[in-house]
Amino acid sequence: MQASPTRSASTASLGSWYRENARDLPWRRPEFLVEFGAWGILVSEFMLQQTPVARVIPHLKAWLARWPSPAALAQATPAEVVHQWANLGYPRRALWLHRAAQEIVARHSGDTPRDVPALLALPGIGDYTARAVAVFAFGDRHPVVDTNTRRVIARAIHGRAQPAPPSRRDLDDMALLLPADDAEAAVVNAAMMELGATLCGARRAVCEPCPLSTTCAWHAAGHPAGEDRRRRQAAYEGSDRQARGGVLRALRNAVEHQLPAMAVIPEWPDATQRDRAIDSLIADGLVEAQDDELRLPR
DNA sequence: GATGCGTGGCA
DNA sequence: TTGCCAAGCAT
């Protein structure tokens, strides 16, 4: 399917809206790319995977101050990396980022790759992150689809309140919205994400200032609730994830206070669950067992 | 395609 | 308070 006049009009208004309304975020500033290059974008995208923007910003600055290049991070130990990750959540991302840095050094001469297949081959990088780096760091033309983009497409294009579960077809939907020019396509990618993050929210949509409101299928239909096929998040209280988080928090705390790990492992109501959490952390490489003692991995 | 995987703010 | 939500990825 080729570009329709209606769609062209929509994306054109998106670009001007973005240039006037985009938030001033660190990784969008020209000096950020000058100082840290594509590596800075890659690190920001790792941290932004499922972690809110406001929590990422201070951690990103500290991380890049300590490890401003893939070569610098590649020389760190897993323990340093997991500790620096702190409370960002999903700490396996820290290990993946560390391994990605080592592979960039080993296989790409320390330069963050530009090609999507090369990016996809790095640990912790999937369809979203690979294209986000290629587009926002290198200016190439690819569809970038995250949870915000999916929601905006579901509403503006398909007239549904909520997107269907993530699918590779989402990339095709987004590709159809991209203008031919590389730089403009990057702006449209960013604008769709920005719309979902600001006006077109999961809980609430503010349509009056939206550049897509005049062509939005969901708006035209009167905001029907529709079917919600989103995956429900499992309860966190009392979960294995909470137990893993408690153990890892204790190990980070042990490092900071130079205490033996077992002295700071919190009492856990369910010892079986605590041991299962420790075993799974060891299996993930996030924790190391040595002489009946636990520690962050060397 | 469905699950497991952290953490904290907000309604 | 409880549940929802957040620039996803690997298996």
TrEMBL record:
**Keywords assigned by UniProt?**
DNA damage, DNA repair, Glycosidase, Hydrolase, Iron, Iron-sulfur, Metal-binding
Question: A Pfam family this protein belongs to?
Answer: HhH-GPD
* Cofactor list: [4Fe-4S] cluster
Q: Where is this region: Disordered?
A: 221-241
SUPFAM superfamilies named among the record's database cross-references: DNA-glycosylase
Q: Name one GO molecular function term.
A: hydrolase activity, acting on glycosyl bonds
- Please list the reactions this protein catalyses: Hydrolyzes free adenine bases from 7,8-dihydro-8-oxoguanine:adenine mismatched double-stranded DNA, leaving an apurinic site
Whether Iron counts among this entry's keywords is yes
List the InterPro entries hit by this protein, alphabetically.
Answer: DNA_glycosylase (IPR011257), HhH-GPD_domain (IPR003265), HhH_base_excis_C (IPR023170), HhH_motif (IPR000445), MIG/MutY (IPR044298)
All residue ranges annotated as the HhH-GPD domain in the record? 47-198
Source domain of life: Bacteria
**Which EC numbers does the record give?**
3.2.2.31
- Give the family from UniProt: Belongs to the Nth/MutY family.
Q: Which PANTHER family match?
A: ADENINE DNA GLYCOSYLASE (PTHR42944)
Q: What is this protein called?
A: Adenine DNA glycosylase
